[in-house]
Predict the structure.
Amino acid sequence: MIPKAVIYCNRQSFFEVYEQVSGHLDPESKLPLSLWLLEDPDSPVALPGAACLDLHDCLHILLNRGYTTADEAFVVGFSMGNDRRCRRWQQHLLAWWSHHLYPSLYRHSRRDLRQFWRGVNLGERTLPLMQFTPEDFLRLGSRIGDIRCAIGLPEQIQPASHLA
Protein backbone atom coordinates (compact mmCIF):
# COMPACT_ATOMS: atom_id res chain seq x y z
CA MET A 1 0.00 0.00 0.00
CA ILE A 2 1.26 3.47 -0.92
CA PRO A 3 1.11 5.94 1.99
CA LYS A 4 -0.90 9.11 1.52
CA ALA A 5 2.14 11.28 2.32
CA VAL A 6 5.37 10.57 0.44
CA ILE A 7 8.59 12.28 -0.51
CA TYR A 8 10.35 11.33 -3.73
CA CYS A 9 14.04 12.27 -3.71
CA ASN A 10 15.91 13.50 -6.76
CA ARG A 11 18.39 10.60 -6.50
CA GLN A 12 15.73 7.88 -6.64
CA SER A 13 15.28 5.82 -9.79
CA PHE A 14 12.18 7.02 -11.63
CA PHE A 15 11.46 3.56 -13.02
CA GLU A 16 11.72 1.82 -9.65
CA VAL A 17 9.44 4.34 -7.95
CA TYR A 18 6.96 4.23 -10.85
CA GLU A 19 6.80 0.43 -10.72
CA GLN A 20 6.25 0.52 -6.96
CA VAL A 21 3.56 3.21 -7.12
CA SER A 22 1.62 2.06 -10.19
CA GLY A 23 1.22 -1.47 -8.90
CA HIS A 24 -0.56 -0.37 -5.71
CA LEU A 25 -3.13 2.12 -6.93
CA ASP A 26 -6.75 1.59 -7.84
CA PRO A 27 -7.45 1.07 -11.55
CA GLU A 28 -9.30 3.75 -13.51
CA SER A 29 -12.38 1.51 -13.52
CA LYS A 30 -12.84 2.28 -9.81
CA LEU A 31 -13.13 6.04 -10.33
CA PRO A 32 -16.47 7.49 -9.25
CA LEU A 33 -18.52 8.80 -12.17
CA SER A 34 -18.21 12.43 -11.02
CA LEU A 35 -14.40 12.20 -11.32
CA TRP A 36 -14.38 10.10 -14.47
CA LEU A 37 -16.60 12.52 -16.38
CA LEU A 38 -14.19 15.48 -16.29
CA GLU A 39 -10.80 13.92 -15.44
CA ASP A 40 -10.56 10.77 -17.59
CA PRO A 41 -9.44 11.21 -21.21
CA ASP A 42 -11.83 8.41 -22.26
CA SER A 43 -14.85 10.41 -21.10
CA PRO A 44 -16.78 12.17 -23.88
CA VAL A 45 -16.87 15.35 -21.75
CA ALA A 46 -13.33 15.25 -20.33
CA LEU A 47 -11.76 18.65 -19.80
CA PRO A 48 -8.36 19.56 -21.25
CA GLY A 49 -5.70 18.29 -18.90
CA ALA A 50 -7.44 14.96 -18.38
CA ALA A 51 -4.61 12.46 -17.95
CA CYS A 52 -4.47 8.70 -18.37
CA LEU A 53 -3.61 6.84 -15.19
CA ASP A 54 0.01 6.19 -16.27
CA LEU A 55 0.70 9.89 -16.82
CA HIS A 56 -1.17 10.80 -13.63
CA ASP A 57 1.05 8.38 -11.64
CA CYS A 58 4.19 9.84 -13.24
CA LEU A 59 3.10 13.35 -12.29
CA HIS A 60 2.56 12.32 -8.66
CA ILE A 61 6.19 11.19 -8.57
CA LEU A 62 7.72 14.15 -10.40
CA LEU A 63 5.64 16.68 -8.46
CA ASN A 64 6.52 15.01 -5.13
CA ARG A 65 2.90 14.43 -4.28
CA GLY A 66 1.29 11.67 -2.25
CA TYR A 67 -2.38 10.71 -2.36
CA THR A 68 -4.22 13.08 -0.04
CA THR A 69 -7.02 15.18 -1.51
CA ALA A 70 -4.65 18.19 -1.46
CA ASP A 71 -2.07 16.17 -3.42
CA GLU A 72 -4.68 15.04 -5.94
CA ALA A 73 -5.90 18.62 -6.32
CA PHE A 74 -2.33 19.79 -7.01
CA VAL A 75 -1.69 17.08 -9.62
CA VAL A 76 -5.00 17.70 -11.41
CA GLY A 77 -4.35 21.45 -11.32
CA PHE A 78 -0.89 20.89 -12.77
CA SER A 79 -2.37 18.75 -15.56
CA MET A 80 -4.88 21.44 -16.46
CA GLY A 81 -2.32 24.25 -16.30
CA ASN A 82 0.09 22.20 -18.39
CA ASP A 83 -2.41 21.53 -21.17
CA ARG A 84 -2.17 24.54 -23.47
CA ARG A 85 -5.74 23.93 -24.70
CA CYS A 86 -7.19 24.45 -21.21
CA ARG A 87 -8.95 27.74 -20.56
CA ARG A 88 -9.43 29.46 -17.20
CA TRP A 89 -13.20 28.84 -17.23
CA GLN A 90 -12.53 25.10 -17.52
CA GLN A 91 -10.20 25.25 -14.53
CA HIS A 92 -12.87 27.11 -12.55
CA LEU A 93 -15.45 24.51 -13.61
CA LEU A 94 -13.32 21.63 -12.32
CA ALA A 95 -12.56 23.51 -9.09
CA TRP A 96 -16.29 24.06 -8.50
CA TRP A 97 -17.17 20.50 -9.53
CA SER A 98 -14.53 18.94 -7.26
CA HIS A 99 -15.61 21.09 -4.32
CA HIS A 100 -19.36 20.48 -4.68
CA LEU A 101 -20.00 17.27 -6.64
CA TYR A 102 -17.18 14.84 -5.86
CA PRO A 103 -18.03 12.09 -3.36
CA SER A 104 -16.92 13.06 0.16
CA LEU A 105 -13.84 10.79 0.06
CA TYR A 106 -12.52 12.69 -3.00
CA ARG A 107 -14.03 16.14 -2.44
CA HIS A 108 -11.65 19.10 -2.50
CA SER A 109 -11.90 21.45 0.46
CA ARG A 110 -11.15 25.17 0.15
CA ARG A 111 -7.66 24.38 1.40
CA ASP A 112 -7.28 21.66 -1.27
CA LEU A 113 -8.38 24.17 -3.90
CA ARG A 114 -5.43 26.40 -2.97
CA GLN A 115 -3.23 23.45 -3.92
CA PHE A 116 -5.20 23.06 -7.16
CA TRP A 117 -4.41 26.66 -8.15
CA ARG A 118 -0.75 26.24 -7.15
CA GLY A 119 -0.65 23.20 -9.43
CA VAL A 120 -2.25 25.17 -12.28
CA ASN A 121 0.37 27.89 -11.87
CA LEU A 122 3.29 25.44 -11.93
CA GLY A 123 1.82 23.53 -14.89
CA GLU A 124 1.58 26.73 -16.93
CA ARG A 125 5.33 27.30 -16.44
CA THR A 126 6.50 23.78 -17.34
CA LEU A 127 7.28 22.00 -20.61
CA PRO A 128 4.03 20.57 -22.08
CA LEU A 129 3.77 16.97 -20.88
CA MET A 130 0.19 15.91 -21.49
CA GLN A 131 1.07 13.39 -24.23
CA PHE A 132 4.00 11.84 -22.32
CA THR A 133 4.19 8.18 -21.31
CA PRO A 134 6.41 6.67 -18.60
CA GLU A 135 8.85 5.67 -21.36
CA ASP A 136 9.06 9.29 -22.57
CA PHE A 137 10.06 10.41 -19.08
CA LEU A 138 12.75 7.70 -18.93
CA ARG A 139 14.28 9.06 -22.14
CA LEU A 140 14.99 12.26 -20.19
CA GLY A 141 16.95 10.50 -17.46
CA SER A 142 16.91 7.62 -15.03
CA ARG A 143 16.76 9.62 -11.80
CA ILE A 144 13.77 11.64 -10.65
CA GLY A 145 15.93 14.77 -10.30
CA ASP A 146 17.23 14.48 -13.88
CA ILE A 147 13.70 14.28 -15.26
CA ARG A 148 12.46 17.15 -13.09
CA CYS A 149 15.30 19.31 -14.40
CA ALA A 150 14.69 18.32 -18.05
CA ILE A 151 11.02 19.32 -17.95
CA GLY A 152 11.61 22.58 -16.10
CA LEU A 153 10.41 21.70 -12.61
CA PRO A 154 12.11 23.29 -9.61
CA GLU A 155 14.97 21.21 -8.22
CA GLN A 156 13.35 21.02 -4.78
CA ILE A 157 9.60 20.45 -4.86
CA GLN A 158 8.01 20.56 -1.43
CA PRO A 159 5.19 18.10 -0.68
CA ALA A 160 1.74 19.63 -0.26
CA SER A 161 1.93 19.22 3.51
CA HIS A 162 4.68 21.88 3.54
CA LEU A 163 2.60 24.33 1.48
CA ALA A 164 -0.59 24.55 3.52
About this structure: The chain has a mean pLDDT of 89. The CA atoms of residues 129 and 136 lie 9 Å apart. The chain is about 50% helix and 0% strand. The two ends are 25 Å apart (CA to CA).
